[in-house]
Design goal:
Layout lengths: L28 E3 L9 E8 L6 H21 L5 E8 L4 H11 L5 E5 L4 H13 L4 E3 L15 E3 L4 H16 L3 E6 L3 H16 L3 E7 L8 H10 L3 E5 L2 H13 L5 E4 L8 H5 L7 E4 L11 H11 L7 H15 L8 H13 L4 E2 L4 E2 L11 H4 L1 E6 L4 E7 H6 L1
Parallel strand pairs: 2-3, 2-4, 4-5, 5-6, 7-8, 7-9, 9-10, 10-11
Antiparallel strand pairs: 1-3, 11-14, 12-13, 14-15
């Protein structure tokens, strides 16, 4: 792919603000910092679970967007002020679609960072693409999204076809089990991961039970727990989110299941410990997200999140920061005036033309389907729950933990 003439490589993405010629907003709009010109405004939309069961996953992602926007506005080196239109889908595809239709009607809207979850991305991709709005998900990993023909879609992280085999490789080479039970929550995300992991483990000659399924609207998983107990597996792999993973892990432990609990980035959530209680310690997850506290290039970002939100960056916050800055950088030299349709098209062209653009988590080159080029051994990390830390702590990238 060609190198974009607009994007300059450096040690990290520089947060540029957006250029626009229209003003406006709604009650969901927010802005941060100052700008060299407050007479015009452009809007970046973001969509995900900002309330409800999955907010502990969604809110940190939105915070990554906020930090990038604040830095862009504070820099004051672009003509117009940047605002954020936050749409709270609660991670529900049924809620996401009408919110997406509302977003694309905004004549200030230049791009979307999100949606955060796979199901809502599948539900909204056609809406965004039909309107010509570029959207970059920093966290939705379902492996079929890029095959839907969404012409303005980009993904800043590895999909499940990368994460799943990496999880299976860790199970096979590090945990070395004889038997594994695989469970999922029937979501587009969880089912995709579980099926991938199960298939890879079977190919490696490991005995696999499942995938078994739970109903994410229920809280009693005793039927599945009984099936797992009867098999007495060495490892239990769960594809899904922390809201169910925590109680499932606890119920398995209470039933006497001793197998290692292993899950995915949907479970990499500080709320997991409160949900899994005494069973939380030692639980493992994979995530296509680097630990920004371990990356020298991300030190300023980590400090900014602490200053703005009094916490370390949460899961995918750094990826959302990168994705937002890709849009901002593309718009810094935008010269299409107030033609928002042309500006949206320029962003899409720019993103498609990136060649190893340096972010704080990785370099970005997108293929024809909008997928970032990924090195699974470098870009998939392993995390382990620590009761002492009250969070998942990074063991390192797959190359370090599994071996390259």
């Amino acid at each position: 792919m060609r190198r974009s003439k607009w994007f300059v490589l450096g040690t990290s993405l520089v947060a540029f603000a957006l250029v626009a010629a229209a003003c406006g907003g709604n009650d969901n709009n927010s802005s941060a910092g100052g700008s060299s010109n407050s007479n015009c405004t452009w809007t970046i939309g973001t969509m995900g679970a900002l309330s409800g069961d999955y907010a502990t996953i969604g809110v940190p992602i939105e915070q990554g967007v906020e930090v990038a926007v604040k830095q862009a506005n504070d820099a004051g080196d672009v003509p117009c002020k940047l605002t954020i239109d936050k749409q709270d889908s609660q991670g529900d595809p049924n809620q996401a679609a009408p919110l997406a239709r509302q977003l694309v009607q905004d004549q200030n809207l230049v791009a979307i960072i999100g949606p955060y979850f796979s199901g809502e991305t599948l539900a909204t991709g056609k809406i965004f693409s039909s309107a010509g709005v570029p959207f970059i998900t920093p966290s939705a990993t379902n492996a079929t999204i890029q095959d839907q023909g969404f012409s303005t879609f980009f993904r800043a992280v590895a999909n499940d076809n990368v994460q799943g085999p990496t999880a299976a490789a860790y199970i096979e080479k590090v945990l070395k089990p004889q038997t594994v039970t695989v469970i999922d929550d029937q979501s587009d995300y969880g089912k995709s991961l579980a099926e991938t992991v199960a298939g890879k483990l079977k190919s490696a000659g490991i005995t696999v039970q499942g995938p078994l399924v739970i109903d994410p609207t229920e809280t009693d998983y005793s039927a599945v727990v009984s099936q797992v107990k009867n098999t007495n597996p060495d490892v239990v792999y769960y594809g899904g989110y922390s809201a169910q993973a925590g109680p499932l892990d606890l119920q398995l432990s209470q039933a006497g299941v001793k197998g290692q609990f292993f899950s995915d980035d949907g479970t990499k959530d500080s709320a997991f410990g409160d949900l899994a209680k005494t069973a939380a310690e030692g639980a493992l997850v994979t995530c296509p997200c680097a630990d920004p506290t371990k990356l020298p290039a991300a030190s300023d970002f980590v400090a900014a999140v602490k200053a703005q939100f009094n916490r370390n960056p949460g899961t995918f916050a750094a990826d959302a920061f990168d994705a937002t800055n890709l849009v901002i950088a593309a718009l810094k030299q935008e010269n299409s005036g107030d033609d928002v349709t042309a500006i949206r098209g320029d962003i899409v062209s720019n993103l498609k033309g990136l060649n190893a653009a340096q972010g704080i988590t990785k370099t970005y080159t997108f293929d024809d389907n909008g997928e970032a080029q990924i090195d699974p051994l470098k870009d998939i990390w392993i995390y382990k729950w620590s009761d002492a830390a009250k969070d998942f702590v990074s063991l390192g990238p797959a190359a370090q933990v599994i071996g390259g």
